[in-house]
Every structure is written in C-alpha cells, then in structure tokens.
Amino acid sequence: xxxxxxxxxxxxxxxxxxxxxxxxxxxxxxxxxxxxxxxxxxxxxxxxxxxxxxxxxxxxxxxxxxxxxxxxxxxxxxxxxxxxxxxxxxxxxxxxxxxxxxxxxxxxxxxxxxxxxxxxxxxxxxxxxxxxxxxxxxxxxxxxxxxxxxxxxxxxxxxxxxxxxxxxxxxxxxxxxxxxxxxxxxxxxxxxxxxxxxxxxxxxxxxxxxxxxxxxxxxxxxxxxxxxxxxxxxxxxxxxxxxxxxxxxxxxxxxxxxxxxxxxxxxxxxxxxxxxxxxxxxxxxxxxxxxxxxxxxxxxxxxxxxxxxxxxxxxxxxxxxxxxxxxxxxxxxxxxxxxxxxxxxxxxxxxxxxxxxxxxxxxxxxxxxxxxxxxxxxxxxxxxxxxxxxxxxxxxxxxxxxxxxxxxxxxxxxxxxxxxxxxxxxxxxxxxxxxxxxxxxxxxxxxxxxxxxx
Length: 454
What we know:
Low-confidence stretches: none
Structural class: alpha/beta
CATH topology of the largest domain: Spore Coat Polysaccharide Biosynthesis Protein SpsA, Chain A
Number of domains: 2
CATH class of the largest domain: Alpha Beta
Largest sheet: 10 strands, mixed
Strand content: 25-35%
Number of strands: 19
Oligomer: single chain
CATH superfamily of the largest domain: Spore Coat Polysaccharide Biosynthesis Protein SpsA, Chain A
C-alpha cells in the first residue's frame, strides 16, 4: 500500500450544525491520496451521529476524546497521522474540491518549501460568500513576514511539523501564528494565489475573541524574540515631557481619576517590564525628578532637555538621538518612545512592539488602527475614494492610521535623524490603546474610561 500523501483532520466540539458540509468537501477532493481523521471532542450535539455516517469509508478514522482545543487536537491528529503532508479543516469551514490537489502538488514540486497556504473566501453563517481574501506573493511582491496566514488550510510537511515540536497547547488561540513563528526564520513558505477554502465568520468564531487572540499573539512573539533579544541591546525607554507648548502647562503633572499623573503612568508601565536596560525621563524642567525619586529602580534616570528641543515643530528624533548616543554609542540597540498622552498603552503593548521588531528584524514598529470608513482624496474631477469596498481584498489594500501612541525604533534610525526608518511594520491597537489626550475634553474622557474599567 502506497503512503498516504495528505492527512486532513477535523475536530468538533458541538459543531454538528456545519460538520456535514466540511466532511463532504474532503470526500469530494479531486485527489485520492488522503486520509481523514475525525475527532469528536466530547460533543453533546449530533457530532458523533454525523461522524458515524462516514465510518464505512476506509479513508476515514473516527476518534472520541475529551475537549482538547485546537492546538491539542492538532497534536493528537499529528500523532495518529500517516500522511506526508498535514492540514486542518475547521468543522465550520469548507475546502474547494481542488484544495488538496493544488497544495500537495505545490509541495511535491518545490522541495525547499516547508508549508503552503491558499487564498480564501469569507462566508457568513449561512454559507453566503461575501468576500475573497488575497495575499501578495512572497519573495516577489511581499517581503515582510509580519502577517501570518489563517491557521486553517495551512498544508505543512509532517516531518518538519514534528521536528519543530508540533503546536503549543498553552495558548488557547493563534495556532497559525505559533506555526508561522516557528517556520519563517528557518524554512521557506509560499502562498498559492487561488481561493481554495471557505472561511465561515459567525458569532462563535474564536476569531471574535479578541482578548484571547491578542494575549496568545503577544506570548508567541515574546518567546520567539527572546532567543535573539541580546543582539538588540541596549533597549531604552524614553519618556519625553516639557513645561510648555501643550494645551496646559506641565501636562505631565496632570492627574487622572486613579490618582496618578500622566508621567507616573508612563513610568510605571516601563518599570513593569524587564526588557528595558534604561528608562529615561527627558524634560526641560527638573521638577520631574520628584516623580522619578518615588520609584526604586536604578534603570530610571533624568535627562535634561534643552528648552528649544521641546518646541512642537522640532523632530523628536533629535532628542532621542541625544539620549541614545549617551547610552548606546554604537547605535546597536532599540528605543521605545513613551508618550505620556497615551495612558492606555500598557506594558504588554510596549513589549509587543519591541518583540515584533526583533522577531521580524525590521527598523521600527508602530501601533495602528485599521480604517474601516471611506477615505477620500481630492482630485481634479472631485473626490476619489481611496479605500474602495472591493469584493476581492488584497493584503495591500487595507489602510491604517498611525495612532502615535506606541513607537519602537532602532537607534541607528535616530543617528540618521529618522524616527522610524523605512522598513516599518505595525501592530493593531486593541481596545483603548489608540486613545491620545489632546485637550481638556480628552482628560474627562480618560477619567470616564478609568471609571468603566474598575
């Protein structure tokens, strides 16, 4: 008997509503060299009844387990698999008939590629397709690797997946990001520019659980970047403040309803992180020393700013360069720009920015918000909408706004007078992270937010 080419697995915990469509999409595949592992994760619905419909097919194996979760179910399937290649299909998604044929042929023809994934359709709860997600080709038009593929429908060589230890089971989400992080720096990968599966969006999607996703994503980045962090030291936090030129004098002194000044909030989020070698409060008034002395942290220091450097039109990169040239003479390290007007950027947000820079070896990271409302540009013939509502969504089509609340940059950029350099990647702002205090009204809003969070 010849070896099975592809192992496909479907795990279900009470997803019987969609299960038959998912399984049928495997049975219909135009290649015959596959096996299907069906995993019932302690379901109380009709999952087992649907699985039993296929127990007569010798290509199908059925298993009953406790509730495992996506990563543990993947590891269970990998242990039971015999295929050269390995791929997951979520119980609520559907493969195009040629999915396994196209992806397995790609791996057959490109021995240097460890994993491959296709474009895909988005469909609603009822199976109505409303969009197509398209990726630009890697190594040709797309030279960044900061956006992982959808965890579903990644086909990977089974031997490589075993060598990298399978999937992490301590995260509860972001198995695609986990796999991506383990692959991108040691193996080649590819995207097939064909939509070969249907991804269902509905209220029960794990995709909708933002907090779990963000927490898992940040842990993955921290673990990956931790291996190389020494190459990027010293890591410096700079918290600039000034006496004048903001909407109120000594804005850094303003206290929010939690009893802490904006400067104290900025300091505390930095000292709560172990990644910083130096935490510098830069100001043209030494009054800030009163705040600094409240903290017993030998990384925390005062830097005297020249008043002329605090003028609004002066580039902050020049001040940062003055500081980093003192603490990083070889310009090998990284600096986080701590904005006192951004009270809801927390320690984990800052560390994600640093870890993203290290993980992807870029010049800077910024915090952004995706722009979902129409954006227009004035032209000679009137207003032209830039972000068109296309059916096909390219990964280069999305527009983002810079929140200006969290910037991490290589110190070598500052030496050249640039805050970010040219090779910039982003992290998406979560919850209130994009909030920036610009006037008295924003202080009132910040206090309302703090009240809500209690």
